[in-house]
Write a structure and sequence with these properties.
about 450 residues, 9 helices, rod-shaped, 5-stranded antiparallel sheet, alpha+beta
Length: about 450
């Protein structure tokens, strides 16, 4: 079902039908209240008429009806009840108002027990008009039994209820029409907003991340969806650009050793060479092959870090950092360096041991490259609120402030003479990002470089 039809159904038709049903129920309650008020008036008049002082007036206690003595009889005549008095034999003795003889209906109404409560009933006249009757038996001062019947027309009640229904149904129809117009407007507006988002998603599906979704202007759920989609589009655009740069940089890094290998081979094949010359050429080519193998390995590590296909468990981070430090001590000793480790005995964190081990290994590898012989490398592990931090400090030349963000990009090196492909810190950043953490260069250090890796201690969904 389309959005417009759903809004018409749930926002116009259903509320209008519900309002109509409520009005019908209210009409029935209104009729009940009017009929209850009519019964109350009839019973009050029965009580007045059944008193001997009103039924049997004068010294002779002749029968009479109090209805006939109303001072405002002309004004209340249209809605005043009709009174009838029947004798002991059930014959009609008198009535008010008086009717022509040809309109008088001869009926018998036998008196009953005077102690019985009044009997209320409803009947329909031949012309369809409904009337409400109250019948009660009374005893005269002389001990004679009489039957008193008061009859009130319900025409005003029925007319009031019909008038209520006419106005109520008119209001319900007007409400339904207003809701239909309102929901039509809302449906078109929502359809337009969602259509813009759908169109943008189709563009994203085609791989075009250059355009942001159209501005929405509202801050409701759809507006928030548009803002999230705009943020996702920006990230996809950035990822596409970063992927392009990575491919270009990787191609450049691969082309250099390949060009050197081809040059060596061309020189070796240009003329006959002696064994020593061929061995020298093969050794040079082997060095470039090793360089390519290292580059390929780092690219695979970067790809693995980006995929985040890890087994995150709650483990002791101190053990992983300690293992990485111990593995780096042999190379440190060969370079005349000393590695110091400062950490608690235990720090339980939700992390992937393999990924974090690769990140710490790369931090130590960078520190070993830039530390001068006889220097020191300090590794520290501590908890900072809900995060665990690992810092690696060396005594090398440091990282210039302008490059402290750039060094985490793939293939970014401080200088062309720097060994390696420039992927180590990019791998560290990817590991931190996949864990929900971050990595940065401490700007407070004036000598050497300090790189800090921060990981959340709790499980990140």
């Amino acid at each position: 079902m389309k959005l417009a039809r759903r809004l018409w159904l749930l926002g116009a038709l259903v509320p209008a039908l519900a309002a109509l049903a409520a009005l019908v129920v209210a009409g029935q309650l209104f009729r009940y209240d009017l009929e209850a008020a009519l019964d109350h008036a009839l019973l009050t008049q029965v009580a007045v008429e059944s008193l001997s002082v009103s039924l049997f007036e004068g010294s002779e206690k002749r029968e009479s009806l109090n209805l006939a003595m109303y001072p405002l009889l002309a004004q209340v005549q249209p809605f005043a009840p009709q009174g009838e008095l029947f004798g002991q034999d059930g014959r009609l003795l008198m009535q008010h108002p008086s009717l022509p003889e040809e309109q008088v209906v001869t009926t018998l109404l036998m008196p009953g027990d005077p102690r019985s409560p009044p009997q209320l009933s409803t009947r329909a006249l031949p012309d369809g008009t409904r009337v409400r009757e109250a019948v009660v038996s009374v005893r005269s001062p002389q001990g004679e039994l009489y039957a008193l019947r008061l009859t009130a027309t319900m025409a005003q009640v029925d007319e009031s209820v019909r008038g209520y229904y006419r106005r109520a149904f008119s209001m319900a129809a007007l409400l339904g029409l207003l809701l239909l117009v309102l929901q039509t407007f809302l449906a078109r507006r929502l359809a337009g907003r969602l259509g813009a988002i759908t169109g943008h998603l189709r563009i994203l599906r085609e791989g075009d991340f250059s355009q942001a979704p159209a501005l929405d202007g509202d801050s409701d759920e759809i507006g928030q969806l548009r803002d999230v989609l705009a943020e996702v589009t920006d990230k996809l655009r950035g990822a596409r650009e970063e992927q392009g740069r990575l491919i270009a940089d990787a191609a450049h890094e691969l082309r250099t050793p390949l060009s050197l290998m081809r040059t060596r081979m061309d020189l070796a094949l240009r003329r006959e060479r002696g064994n020593e010359e061929l061995l020298a050429s093969f050794r040079a080519v082997r060095g470039e092959v090793d360089r390519l193998a290292v580059l390929a390995g780092e690219l695979l590590e970067l790809a693995a870090a980006g995929r985040g296909e890890w087994d995150r468990t709650k483990a002791n981070l101190v053990d992983v950092v300690g293992q990485s430090v111990e593995a780096a001590r042999a190379e440190a000793e060969a370079r005349g360096l000393i590695i110091f480790l400062e950490s608690p005995t235990r720090e339980d964190v939700w992390f992937d041991p393999g990924g974090v081990r690769r990140a710490v290994d790369n931090l130590l590898s960078n520190a070993l490259k830039f530390s001068p012989s006889g220097g020191e490398i300090h590794v520290r592990l501590w908890r900072e609120h809900a995060h665990a931090r690992i810092s690696v400090v060396d005594q090398g030349p440091g990282i210039p402030p302008a490059q402290r963000e750039e060094v985490f990009a793939p293939f970014r090196k401080l200088s062309s003479a720097t060994p390696g492909a420039g992927l180590g810190l990019a791998i560290v950043r990817e590991v931190a990002r996949r864990h929900g953490g971050r990595v940065w260069v401490n700007s407070a250090r004036s000598r050497g470089a300090e790189v800090v890796l921060e990981l959340p201690t709790r499980h990140q969904g």
